[in-house]
Amino acid sequence: MANGQKNRIDVTIHGTSYKIIGTESVEQIRLVASLVNDKMTEISEMNPNLDTARLAVLTAVNAVNEYVELQKYVEQLEQELKKLKG
């Protein structure tokens, strides 16, 4: 939200309810919560004996790894764009 107003939204992630507060749009908050829930479900299905804390850490590690890979890809695209402009 451009004006800095905070949105408050209830979401459920891996069976637990959370109140998320942020300046992002309600749609974005819901999307992020849904993606986290999906990733936790995916990891939990592959490792059904994980406790919630370990599941959360593995989900965070996976998410940050995807973020790092995307950063590398963006940097690569920026370099290619510079070459095309130069």
How are the strands of the biggest sheet laid out side by side?
1-2
Indicate the overall shape.
flat
Strand tally: 2
Report low-confidence residues grouped into runs of 5 or more: none
Rounded to an integer in angstroms, the radius of gyration calculated over CA atoms is: 17 Å
**Strand fraction:** 15-25%
Main sheet attributes: strand count, strand direction, barrel closure = 2 strands, antiparallel
Helix content: 55-70%
What class would the helix/strand composition place it in? alpha+beta
Which terms would index this structure?
Cell division protein ZapA; cytoplasm; septation; 2 helices; Cell_div_ZapA-like; 16% strand; Cell_div_ZapA-like_sf; two-stranded antiparallel ribbon; alpha+beta
Describe this structure in words.
The chain has 86 residues and is an alpha+beta fold. It has one domain. The chain contains 2 helices and 2 strands. A two-stranded antiparallel ribbon has the order 1-2. Keywords: Cell cycle, Cell division, Cytoplasm, Septation.
Note the topology.
Blueprint: E1 7-13, E2 16-22, H1 26-46, H2 52-85
Antiparallel strand pairs: 1-2
Helix pairs in contact: 1-2
Pfam family, one: ZapA
Keywords: Cell cycle, Cell division, Cytoplasm, Septation
InterPro entries: Bac_CellDiv_Activator, Cell_div_ZapA-like, Cell_div_ZapA-like_sf
Compact description:
By secondary structure, this protein is an alpha+beta fold.
